[in-house]
Design a protein that fits this description.
Strand content of chain A: 5-15%
Number of helices of chain A: 18
Oligomer: heterodimer
Number of helices of chain B: 4
Distance between the termini of chain B: 61 Å
Number of strands of chain B: 0
Strand order of the largest sheet of chain A: 3-2-1-4-5-6
Largest sheet of chain A: 6 strands, parallel
Structural class of chain A: alpha/beta
């Protein structure tokens, strides 16, 4: 395409600017929605300009493909439940990765009709886009399956899988090397197959609670794959947008890893969920005999009716029990009595970054009541009650003090510093990581046994009768 | 080194810094919409799909390009719509009335 009319690259520039402005507006919930619309406008601009390119063939097919994908995307996005957002994002991310892989592959097929890629640099980015896009495609599909419950959410550690991963990684590197050295085209097929398989086997062993890291990482992969296709096609809009997404995904991956005090290699290859129970079994056996203080919903309601400040600590267990609406109603009832209610949200409280905030926002909790770890931790000491609902490891004080604990060093919410702690929990069974929680045996902690939704509803009823 | 590649690398490097700068300002409370919004933005790969489909010869290339455009279009349309749905829910003041 030698004679690209000026309006096309100019519209790409405008689109890139609109993307950046859109992302900037995400810095506050008040005008975040307009930011998303601005970014969508940028996308529409770039698309229209592209479609007006003079030397484009197959226009009819292009419009049909855009129509099919666009309509399917909109329908899916409208129908999906807010609670299913992580799998939706995983699926959309996989489609983007797949598209990037296809574009790179197609470029390889087209150009190899004449010769190999234009230059070595182009071939490198073509290969990079194909590999990263393929990994993101199958990896996201497996992540989708895990979040949707089609694929087991359990963490696996299998030495066979680990060996297979090393073998696949080696195959990817070897075929990339052969192709870069000008080797025959069938190596590209080996490269693609190895990358597609690697994506699946990389995500397969990772447990559900590590999904925030995996989804962030796959997000950044798709971004980088899109940027790579931008290099191959010499398209600045793709380079800029892909890179913005790559940066965002990378930043979120770092944040999520930091929130769990683990490295990315540890999440991907450590098999946390499978390694922990062995160590925790011993610790658990030593502590399960310790007494806990149980409280009834009626007593808990009397306590809550007479406090001034409450910090709610929601965990993924609350979302699983679909208790967020009941929790919001309880908070409203307490707020009416003059109780200051805040929510303390741990970064990995859900299945993707910020997931818990979305779940609570859907239940009409105003975002002004949502606080992250750094904002809220100083306030627990002044809170009358910390109400822990379906959270476990993120309030485990062993992370601060017990160097032998598998979660030692992980930043936690200091719920144990509140005057009283009420923990709503189904039973004394340890949580995801199988680690016992010393918080439950503290003298100021009271256990309210029951499923999150039932217990909160009961609390609310008791609170009403308390007058 | 060819001048096109140098320009591309320049754009890439600057976009990395802009990306980190802008994204690090996004509050934790909005990280899920951020992720689905950036997800929609990488749907721009659909433009790559249009380029290849628009220059395709033969069944294989046309098929690959067609699927790429469908995937990319789903990615971007779905991404913007779910992000809008989520952001619509973020309200600053407690709402009264029905839930």
């Amino acid at each position: 395409m030698n004679s690209v009319p000026d309006f096309i690259p100019l519209s790409y520039l405008a689109a890139s600017i609109l993307f950046i402005i859109g992302l900037k507006r995400l810095s506050s919930p008040a005008h975040a929605r307009s930011g998303n619309l601005i970014a969508a406008g940028g996308m529409a601009l770039a698309l229209i300009a592209m479609l007006m390119a003079p030397d484009l063939s197959h226009r009819g097919l292009i419009l049909i493909a855009l129509g099919i994908g666009g309509i399917a995307g909109v329908i899916g996005a409208r129908r999906v439940a807010i609670t299913d957002m992580p799998q939706m994002v995983a699926l959309l991310n996989g489609l983007g990765g797949g598209a990037a892989a296809l574009v790179s592959t197609n470029e390889f097929v087209q150009v190899s009709r004449m010769a190999f890629f234009h230059s070595h640099a182009a071939s490198f980015t073509g290969i990079f886009g194909a590999v990263i896009g393929s990994i993101s495609f199958t990896g996201s599909l497996i992540a989708f399956g895990k979040l949707q419950g089609i694929v087991s959410e359990k963490a696996l550690t299998s030495s066979t899988l680990r060996t297979a991963n090393i073998g696949l990684a080696a195959l990817i590197l070897i075929s990339a090397g052969v192709l870069l050295a000008g080797g025959p085209g069938y190596w590209f097929l080996a490269l693609l197959l190895a990358a597609l398989t690697f994506g699946a086997t990389m995500v397969m062993p990772i447990g559900g609670a590590d999904m925030p890291v995996v989804i962030s990482l796959l997000n950044s992969f798709t971004g980088l794959a899109a940027a790579a296709t931008g290099f191959t096609l010499d398209n600045t809009a793709l380079i800029i947008s892909g890179t913005l997404v790559g940066a965002s995904g990378t930043l979120l991956t770092q944040l999520m890893c930091k929130a769990m005090n683990r490295s990315i290699t540890n999440v991907l290859f450590g098999g946390f969920g499978a390694a922990a129970p062995a160590g925790a079994a011993g610790a658990g056996a030593a502590t399960t005999q310790r007494p806990v203080r149980e409280i009834t919903a009626a007593d808990a309601a009397v306590l809550l009716a007479n406090i001034r400040s409450l910090i709610v600590v929601p965990g993924y267990g609350m979302a699983v029990a679909q208790a967020q609406h009941a929790v919001r109603e309880l908070a409203d009832a307490l707020a009416k009595r003059g109780v200051d209610v805040k929510y303390a949200i741990h970064p990995v409280a859900g299945r993707m970054p910020g997931h818990m905030n979305v779940l609570l926002a859907e239940a009409n909790v105003p975002y002004t009541q949502l606080f992250d770890l750094d904002q809220i931790n100083g306030e627990f000491a002044h809170a009358d009650v910390a109400l822990v609902i379906g959270a476990n490891d993120v309030v485990n004080p062993a992370a601060r003090t017990d160097t032998a604990s598998p979660i030692y060093g992980m930043p936690i919410l200091d719920a144990d510093k509140a005057q009283h702690v009420i923990v709503i929990k189904r039973s004394m069974n340890p949580g995801f990581a199988g680690i016992d929680n010393p918080l439950y045996y503290e003298p100021r902690t009271m256990m309210l046994f029951g499923d999150a939704k039932g217990a909160v509803t009961k609390l609310l009823e008791e609170l009403k009768t308390a007058g | 080194m060819n001048p096109v590649l140098i320009t591309q690398l320049t754009i890439f490097a600057l976009a990395v810094f802009v990306g980190f700068e802008v994204i690090s300002k996004v509050p934790v409370v909005l990280h899920t919409p951020l992720m689905s919004g950036t997800n929609a933005i990488h749907g721009i790969v659909v433009i790559g799909g249009i380029v290849v489909l628009g220059t395709a010869h033969g069944v294989l290339e046309t098929t690959l390009g067609f699927i790429a455009v469908v995937f990319g279009a789903m990615n971007l349309a779905g991404g913007f719509v779910v992000t809008d749905r989520m952001l619509e829910m973020f309200k600053g003041k407690p709402r009264s009335g029905p839930k």
